[in-house]
Structure formats: structure tokens, C-alpha cells
Amino acid sequence: LERDKYEGNDVAGVVTGLAWTQVGGDILYIESILSEGKGNLSITGNLGKVMKESATIALEYIKAHAEDFNLNPDIFSKYNVHIHVPEGATPKDGPSAGITMLTSLVSLFTQKKVKKNLAMTGEITLRGKVLPVGGIKEKILAAKRAHIKEIVLCEDNRRDIEEIKEDYLKGLTFHYVTDMKEVIAIAVTNQKVKNPKAL
Amino acid sequence: LERDKYEGNDVAGVVTGLAWTQVGGDILYIESILSEGKGNLSITGNLGKVMKESATIALEYIKAHAEDFNLNPDIFSKYNVHIHVPEGATPKDGPSAGITMLTSLVSLFTQKKVKKNLAMTGEITLRGKVLPVGGIKEKILAAKRAHIKEIVLCEDNRRDIEEIKEDYLKGLTFHYVTDMKEVIAIAVTNQKVKNPKAL
Amino acid sequence: LERDKYEGNDVAGVVTGLAWTQVGGDILYIESILSEGKGNLSITGNLGKVMKESATIALEYIKAHAEDFNLNPDIFSKYNVHIHVPEGATPKDGPSAGITMLTSLVSLFTQKKVKKNLAMTGEITLRGKVLPVGGIKEKILAAKRAHIKEIVLCEDNRRDIEEIKEDYLKGLTFHYVTDMKEVIAIAVTNQKVKNPKAL
Amino acid sequence: LERDKYEGNDVAGVVTGLAWTQVGGDILYIESILSEGKGNLSITGNLGKVMKESATIALEYIKAHAEDFNLNPDIFSKYNVHIHVPEGATPKDGPSAGITMLTSLVSLFTQKKVKKNLAMTGEITLRGKVLPVGGIKEKILAAKRAHIKEIVLCEDNRRDIEEIKEDYLKGLTFHYVTDMKEVIAIAVTNQKVKNPKAL
Amino acid sequence: LERDKYEGNDVAGVVTGLAWTQVGGDILYIESILSEGKGNLSITGNLGKVMKESATIALEYIKAHAEDFNLNPDIFSKYNVHIHVPEGATPKDGPSAGITMLTSLVSLFTQKKVKKNLAMTGEITLRGKVLPVGGIKEKILAAKRAHIKEIVLCEDNRRDIEEIKEDYLKGLTFHYVTDMKEVIAIAVTNQKVKNPKAL
Amino acid sequence: LERDKYEGNDVAGVVTGLAWTQVGGDILYIESILSEGKGNLSITGNLGKVMKESATIALEYIKAHAEDFNLNPDIFSKYNVHIHVPEGATPKDGPSAGITMLTSLVSLFTQKKVKKNLAMTGEITLRGKVLPVGGIKEKILAAKRAHIKEIVLCEDNRRDIEEIKEDYLKGLTFHYVTDMKEVIAIAVTNQKVKNPKAL
Ligand SMILES: [Ca+2]
Ligand SMILES: [Ca+2]
Ligand SMILES: [Ca+2]
Ligand SMILES: [Ca+2]
Ligand SMILES: [Ca+2]
Ligand SMILES: [Ca+2]
Ligand SMILES: [Ca+2]
Ligand SMILES: [Ca+2]
Ligand SMILES: [Ca+2]
Ligand SMILES: [Ca+2]
Ligand SMILES: [Ca+2]
Ligand SMILES: [Ca+2]
Q: Which residue of B has its CA nearest to C10?
């Protein structure tokens, strides 16, 4: 449990996701980093094919909507992006980290802080939709154990929350979204991170 | 079912296909996006080899017939194309999304709206023919559940429709085609999408 | 059966082959297309390693004998070639489509029509020989069902034809060859296709 | 046992790690070397995917924090880095060599000596955190057998040490860390190695 | 059997080898071809890893000993080499086609005829040695069936020939070699092929 | 046995190693060759991953210590290196050919003769250490059968020799080493090979 305790938001690109594993729900961090390069994307963390695809989709979406995020399109070809999902001993797969990866990359490219005590889970699509995912009950329990206060979910997962006993939901605020821009509006603050990188 | 509800056609490149899975027929979206690049094609969505080949064939066909679609051939080397098929948790394969991918790419390169309430299924070939596919009955039922009004099929699939009880077909209009240009004539409107990209 | 009905020869690069599958003989089309590029060869159609090798051999042979086909050797580095074998749901392999692929590429690079109502099957080699293949009886039956009139085979497959009842062979003309140039002489006409591409 | 006896620290990039194998804990060396090149990273030693990812993460982290280590960022594109983990007959995997690889690379790029009689084990993350790892008891016993005096562990592994009988810990000093910069502060001395390479 | 009948030697690069398959000995042809390029080597014929390695070794040896074969070293970077072993339906592997591949490439680069009615089998090494191979008895019987008159073998295979009944060897001349240059001296004539390519 | 008989040392890069296979100890040759190129390393001989890694480590070590071997560092980017281990029918793996590969490459780059009647076995590391390997008894017997006179082993393998009956060791001289430079001092003579290549 210690290893899941909530980290501050001083570093760009660190976002809390919710995962569903063989042993129940769990907290999962997405980290991302920029280094000078030519626009390559590398992905680590013992991830399967579908989870790697989510990272590609997130980056492609941001590139195609650079102006919506006030990003200079030139930065995409001047930096390499590396996305990592810690705890390499655990194999991870599936599309549910999509919105977490999207949020990580927007924080990274804008060098803005991610909201504290917030976690999320949801699939992303190229056209900007958020899709529902499974394992909601287990993920919510894991979020509570980790002292998460707010959770971003797909609107279509609202029914899954409504099936959970109210007691379990105390202290949690839910944000139901259908569009990827809503996720960013909720999750990425307007405050720059400590020592922001000048891009 | 929620996740299959029909989306508007404001975004270029989003087209509704019909798929046949282990659990019956289903609606499936093809999405595509352009980003500045050198003409690379990337494909995501947990797709098998044959479905990826369909994307390649669709793009090659459009390149070889650029003038027929009023496209400037230079755009193919100035943009990367990314095609995605949502719901990454489901493995997908087979050639039947061919005409859906073709329609997605023509909408993308022309920035024109796809016709609303329309779905399609059919294999494509390099010479421009549409070939019949399987699972027609299950696909039609899925289309009805998703409130689709018009369906594009290969002429050789007409017999499969004739074997379905008339009741099931109420409210559906069928377009039987043999050539890929007929698909585009039916499916891609002359109206530009909202905020069309200037290519 | 509909899907196998014979197509016209207005398009360059479309050639009818004979295949032998688990469920008997079948008609198979080879299609090829040129797009501006740097001489890359791509191959689709759910093909195995050996069938892909046939495509490579066919292209290499044509490159090495460009003058024999009145081809300007520069075109090989100015265009990409894509070869496709339709019906992606069926895995295909083996060397027997070799002469069909060769014919497809010669028609493509010369933009000349392939002879109508003609089918073929035979392995090719780098030095220009045609080698015999298996499944001749099943392939001949499939050719008849598809209303083929002439068939190109390796000289060493003559004995396989002689073992077939004469009744089955009615209406079929056989061309037995040993050299790849004989195939081209029989199969590629001197007539340009409709709207030939200026190479 | 001979093969594990402690080596001097005259060579940059040689660091002692602690591994947990099927036959118990073991000492493991990380070695790294620079050669003129273009910034490629190669990794040998019969390593699995996750252990190779650790090497990538370590290098990316150092690149992104070059200034913290007083490194000229230009060196990353002028040299190739090769990381090796000896005893190629033994397959190795897992994230626990992360801090050992990080230390190896910092020693390599700064050409500074690693502290003698020191071993370490811990996962690294892109944002600079050290994560706990398993097999602590077995690793400690192996460290003692190899006459290690100081050990670097994640703060979250402190509890694992507290569960070990005090007798086994005699003569060992533990450094508990949460941040990757702490590891470097403990493990890399300010003394240049013998014949330092001029970078 | 027809398919194994001996071919003339008018084409450069065509050499007869002896193979040992699950169904006994067999004749096997090696073909090679040059096309304008940058020195790439491609290999087809349904070959396994070891047989492909033989092709690499043969080409490397010729490059390193260009002067011994009166070859201008510049040609290696101006042409691509393609080696093919016909009968793609049969998987082939093992090192025994090494001297056959070497002979094919020397004939190709010198555009000289290979000796008629000659077959060979033997492994090659980078330093120019010929090593013995297995299946000698079966290979000899296949050679006789194909009307081969002379056979090149490794000196260390002499004992295998001595164990074969004299009757089987009638009409065959054996050349036992230890060095790869001996193979070339025996197998490649001083006569140019028909229409030699000007390299 | 014939195939293992000792070869002269006129050719650079040919070194005798000792291998341990399923059927006992055996002699194994390492060969290497230079061709004009850009510094690529290729490796053949039906080798597994770990044995290929040894080749990489040997080359990296030599590059990083070019001055110690009086080598002009420019040669590494002007030549391609090919390492081959003959007898392609036998799969080979493991790290024990490391010192043999190192010796082969030093002989190759210096064009100096390797000492006659000498064999060796030992793992190498990036920092220049020689590590012990297994199968010593079987390897020694194979060396005797092949009339080897001197053997280079890791110091940590001395105990393995001491456990062998003295009778078996008659006529053999052992060199125990801990550092890779000792191997080169023993194995590579100061005499140039016949017709040395001017690098
Ligand atoms: Ca966890
Ligand atoms: Ca998630
Ligand atoms: Ca669905
Ligand atoms: Ca479809
Ligand atoms: Ca068919
Ligand atoms: Ca065919
Ligand atoms: Ca050990
Ligand atoms: Ca470690
Ligand atoms: Ca044969
Ligand atoms: Ca052979
Ligand atoms: Ca041997
Ligand atoms: Ca060895």
C-alpha cells in the first residue's frame, strides 16, 4: 500500500490512473518526460500492445489539436517523448489508461500542474471521445484506499457507480465526461509546475 | 449498447462499420486523423494482420486515384495518416471493414462530411472492386439496434439480405455496390465538416 | 461462385490465377498498382512467406530483364509497387502464383491489357524457368466453373492434364511453357489498357 | 562464490547490485562503457524486457536532468552507451536493477568513482522516485557473503529489513532513499576514476 | 524427376547442388541475379536460418577476396544480389549448399559459365575452408539419377564415398577439396556466359 | 575428428575455442573477416542470443581500448566485421566463447598471427574481466584429442583443473588469467599474418 501513496504534483506529466488487475483494483501512475530529439515516442513499464496503442493515440490527438491546447506544433518534432508506467514487475494492458496518458502528455507539453488527489480511468479515441471501461467497482475501492478525492470517468460508466453502495462512495466526487477536452479541463490546472521546462 | 449510439458527422474520417464478432453482430467505428509528416500510415485498435492490410489497400487505392477524388497528390507525402478502431479491449480482424476504411480516408482527405445514419461492410481490392463478406444477418440486427437507416453492401451480398425475414429489414434502405467509387458516391457528402482542415 | 466470375481486362495488372485450397481448386486474382515512390514492394492478401517470395522474384526478374520488356529501368526507382491477392479472409501460400504475379507486374509496367478468359498457375525462378505445381486437376475444374477458356501451365504439368478425363477438358486450350518469357508472350497483349498511366 | 568477490572501483560504470534468483540472492554487477557514436543505447547480458526497460529509463532520466549532474547535454549525442550485466549464462529480468543502472551511467558520464563495498537494489521511475523491490532477505544474505558494507534500498523496503534477525545485519549500514538523486549522492564519489576519459 | 533434369549453363549464377531431404537425396539449383542497387543481399526459396547464413558467408568471402577473383571491389556497392533456391514448396535448411552458393556468386560476378554436368555439396567457412557434410550416399544416388558426371566434395567426405558400393559410383568423377578456391577452379570455367552483363 | 584437426595460423582472426555440447567437449573455431563498410557487425554460425552478445561485447571492448592495442580508432567506422563459427548444423550458445572472440578480433584488427596449438574458453565482461565457465573437464579432453598444447582459462577455473586426474593433463600447459589483456598477451603474437591486410 505504501507504494501507492499519493505523490505531489510538482512534476509535469505525473497522473494517477486506476487499474484493474488479477488481484483487484489498483492505483497506477503515468509518467512522461521530454528529451531533445526528433519526435520519437518510447513507452516502457511492461505494457501490452493495446496499452501502447493508447499512448500513440493520445500523442496523435494532441498533435492534431495543438492549437486547442495552446501548443506550438513545432515542439512535436523537436523533442522525444517517453511515457512510463511504474512497477515494471507487473504486466499491464488494456485501453483504460487512455485518458490518464492524454492528461500526462498535456501536462508535459504545457508544463502545467495536474490537479491533486484526482484519479481517472477511460479509453480514448482519435476523434476525442471518452469510452467506458470495466472494473469500476474495484477501481473505486482502490482509489479510496489511496485517499483519492475526485475521479474522472466516462459518462457511460455512471451506471456502474450507481450500482455501488453509497457508503463506499463517501468522500469521492465524480466527474462524468464524454469528450477528451473535458478531461483536460478538469485535470490540468492553469498553474505551471515547479521549474517548468522552457519549450 | 450506450457505447454504440450513433455519433454525429461533424468530424472528418469517422465512419460506421458493421462487424461480426464471437458474440454476434456489432457496430464499429473507423476514425482517422492527419498530422504533419512524411506520408506514414499508422494503425491502432487491437487489429489483426488482415484488417491492417485493408487500411493499406484503402490508402494505396486513394493515392492511385487521387484525381478521381479531386485530391492534390502532394498531400500524401506531407501528412501522416493514423487510422484507429475504438474499443481496444476487443481484438478485431478480417477484411470486412475495407469499405469503411476507404470512406474514412476519403472523408479525411476531402474534409467532407460522411452521410448520417449510414453503416457499411465490405472487402475492398486494389483494382476498386467491392467483395462480399460474411455475417450479414448478425450485422443487420446490430445496425437496427443502433438506429442505422441506410446500409452499403456488396451486390453479391444481396442474396444474404433476401434470406432475412422482411420484418427485420423494416426501416432499412440497402445500397448494393460492386465498385469502390459507388461507395464514396453514396457515403461522402459534398458538405465540408465543421472547421475543415486546410490541406 | 459469384465472387469468382470473370472480370474484364480494362485495368492493368489484374490477372487470373488458379489456386488449390483445402476445399478444392479455386480462382484467384492478382492485382497490382503503382504509386509514386522509391521502388518499394508491398504485398497484401493474407499471404504466407513463400507466396511473398514469389512476388519478390517476379519483380527482381523484371528488373534484370527490363530491356526484354521494353521497360525504362528508371521506372523501378520512381514508383512503389503494391501487389494484392483479394479475399483476405483466406490465408494463401505456396509458389504456384509465380507466373500470375509475373504477368501482373509486366502488365502493370507496360500498361498493356492481359488476354481475356485466360488463367495460369506455375512457379517461377530467378533464371526465368517455369516449374510445375500441384493440384492441377482441382485447378482445372475451378477454371471451367469460372468460364476460363485458356490455361498456361508448365510443360512438366502436361502429364497431369493427360491424366484428366477428356470430357472435363472440353472448351479449354492449354499452353505449356518452360520459360517465363513464353508466359508473357501468351498472356500480355499489345493493346494498352483504358486510360493507361504515363510512366 | 569466487566469481562474486568484490572488485575495486577504478573503472567508471561498474556498480554492485543485488539480485534475487531461483537459487536465492546473488551479487550482480552492472558495467557500462562509452564509444564514439550517435547516442545509441545497447544492452547485453541475457536480459529480459523489463530489465532492458530499466536501462532506457535510467538513460532518459539522466538526459532530462543533465544539469543536475553537471553534464554537458551534447555528450548524449556524441557517444553510444553499452550496458552489460555479466554472467551471460543466467537469464535476468525485473525492475530491481534500476538504481544500479542509474548509478552506473552517472559514474560513466561523470567518470567518477563509485563508493567501494556498496551494493544496491531498487526500481526507478521516470520522475525520479525509487520504488521498493522483493527478495530483500535473500539479497541481504548474498551481500554479506560478498563482504558488502553498505546497502542502498527504497524507504519502503525498511520494513523488510526490520523483519530480519539482527544477527544477520551485523556489519551492514543501510541507506533508505525515496529519490533517485539520493542514490547518486550516496553512491557516486567526487573522485575521478583512474585514467578518466575526457568527454 | 523431370523437374530435376539438367539445365544448360548459358545463364550466370546457376549451379547444381546436392541436398538431403526427408525423402532422400535430391538435386537443388542455386540461382543468383544482380540488379542495380547499393549492395543489399536478398535470399528466397523457403530457406531456414543456417542456409541463409551460408549465402551471407559466401558473399562476404568473395568481397574479402575480390582480387583473387579479378573482381573490381566497387561492384559490390553498385549492385544488389538476390539468391534463390527453386521449389519454394519445400523448406530447406543446413550449411551444405555453401559451396554451391559460393560458386553461384563467383559465376554471377565474373559472368563466367559454370562447368556442365557438375554438382557439389559442402559447408563453407569465412577463412575459405570447405567442411564435410552429411547424407553423402543419398546425394550421390540423386546425382546419378540426374545424369551428373562430376561431383565436388570436401576431402573429409572421401571416406563416405569409399563406403559406397563401386557399382553406384560408375560414371562419376569426384573432386575432393579442402579450400574454397579449389571449388572455384574446378567449377567456374573461363568462358563468358551468353550475353554477359557488363559490370 | 578429422574436421577438428588443428589448422595453421596464417590467416588473421582464426582462433581455437573449447565448447561443451550435449555430446561432450569439442573444438570450435572462431573466424572473423573485415570488409569495407561503416562499422557494422554481423555474426553467423547458428548462434544463440548469448553467444551473439559475446561478439558485441568483444567488439565494444576493443573499440573502447583501441589505444591499448595500438589500433587507429578510425578503422572501426571504415570496415564491417563479420564473425563466423563454423559447423552451421550445430546450434551454439552461451558466453564461454567470449575470450576466443576477443582474440579473433584483436588478431583481425592487428593482422597478427594467433599462437599455434593454443585453445581457450572463458566469458568476457565490458570492464575487461575474464569469468569462469563450465564443462572444463570435457573441454580439456577435447583439447587433447585435437593435439592442443596450451590452454587459456579464467583463474577461477583453476580448481576445475585441479580436480582432473594428472594423467589427463600430460602435455598441456595452462594459463590462468583474470583480465582480458592477459589473454591477448598470451594468444596474439607479434608476427604479422601472411599477406596482411593494410588497414
Ligand atoms: Ca500498485
Ligand atoms: Ca487508468
Ligand atoms: Ca461495441
Ligand atoms: Ca465493416
Ligand atoms: Ca474464391
Ligand atoms: Ca496461380
Ligand atoms: Ca553470481
Ligand atoms: Ca539490483
Ligand atoms: Ca527436386
Ligand atoms: Ca548443396
Ligand atoms: Ca566439431
Ligand atoms: Ca570457447
A: B127
